[in-house]
Predict the structure of 3-hydroxybutyryl-CoA dehydrogenase.
Amino acid sequence: MSEITCLGVVGGGFMGSGIAESAARAGLSVVIHEPEQAPLDRSRARIEESVRRAAQRGKLSEDEAAEMLGRITWSTELEALTAADAVVEAIIEDARAKGSLFKKLDQLLPDAIFLASNTSSIPIAEIAAWTRRPERVIGVHFFSPVPVMSLVEIVRAIDTSDATVAAADALAATLQKHPVHTPDRAGFVVNMLLVPYLMAAIRMYEDGFATREDIDEGMKRGCGHPMGPLTLCDFIGLDVMYAIGESLYEEFKRPDFAPPPLLKRMVVSGHFGRKSGRGFYEYE
Ligand code: CAA
């Protein structure tokens, strides 16, 4: 597979915008696609703000910041992705939505292009089954905030070829991310370990065992975590946490993965955490 100079990103949310920003910082051209204009405008504003902060902190010159933004195109046209050498999908955690997107990408893009999903919990094999190129479908799972976190999980599905794994490794290297390799199993490495811990923190709070502040300060000050677990849940998004917990529970039927009743109540009430202004904490 040839070198990647232009990366396509489908989904301009927190993850998709972060992936696009990392790619543009690494010198790649980037096309971000969303079918609606409003999320694209939010994506552009988010990336511009992040780049402005980086420039203010002296990490980029004004010229470099402008060049970096100039490498990114935001488009409502799926066809704009034909400029890309590889595509990373970062849309909602919904197997049908991802499947039908991959079907369209498969029909649109040349056979040599590999298609990656940033899913944290949907089987890559299930997504790949919607395409005629399952050997060129792979999981490339980023961590938020993407420009800061240096890990990607590279997830090989049952039909993924060695060449596709090598191409994903090369993409990770270009983006200056450290790859860890895992088979296609819910949770991969990190969420398999992280999710039971976060669900346990929610249960502890739900039971009234300790305050949200004491739970968070306990893990920050006692274990040196950059964020306490309830703050981290708000940061990841409670809807995302719920979806990951459900997938892990469905796969392994282990109660420590199951979303606690409080998490479900918060999600159905629209309390998604930082992005909606309210989760375990309140945000401006
Ligand atoms: N975009 C770009 N850069 C950002 C950023 C963002 N959204 N947020 C913070 N940064 C940068 C800052 O510019 C700063 O950079 P420098 O030090 O080089 O100047 C650095 O990160 C630290 O930022 P701050 O000083 O503002 O704040 P902080 O020290 O509190 O760090 C944090 C913020 C990096 C988010 C830190 O709190 C942290 O590491 N939290 C834990 C995050 C985590 O666990 N992520 C994984 C979630 S799990 C996941 O993503 C996978 C899944 O499937 C659920």
DSSP finds eleven helices and eight strands in the chain. The mean pLDDT is 96.
